[in-house]
Amino acid sequence: MKKQAFRTITMLSLLLMLAAVSVNAQQLSENKIAVNIPFDFAVGETKLPAGKYTLRRIISTSAADQLLIRNAEARVDMRSGITRPNRASEVQKQSKLIFNRYGDQYFLSQVWTAGSDTGRDLLQSRGERNLAKELARNNSEHHKVTITGGRQ
Length: 152
Prior knowledge:
43% strand
């Protein structure tokens, strides 16, 4: 009798844990950021036009998730390269995208979602690394540009 009760409790506990993980993953995958980006920019090696975008995290089984980036007007529908988690010291009040700006070129660098203390870092492309090296040789600086958006 004790064995049966122990098995039942163990199975129920396991099922509850799986349900909680499933609900949490579903909530994360449904978070979208809607943002108007007023300049052309790059994600990895891909150049994208200015416009209204939605971004959604594509959750994988590893920590190396991707972003789904969409612009219906320009018919852009792409996946970013691999992203890495980045933790902030506090929960974000607004969703925001952070770009690295080198001269007149912008590269998406980070994505933060309101209500979370974990953002996503995008890896630098070869083109961005080359620009950064060139600026360092010329003693020039790059700048960070932040665009805030809303959660959808």
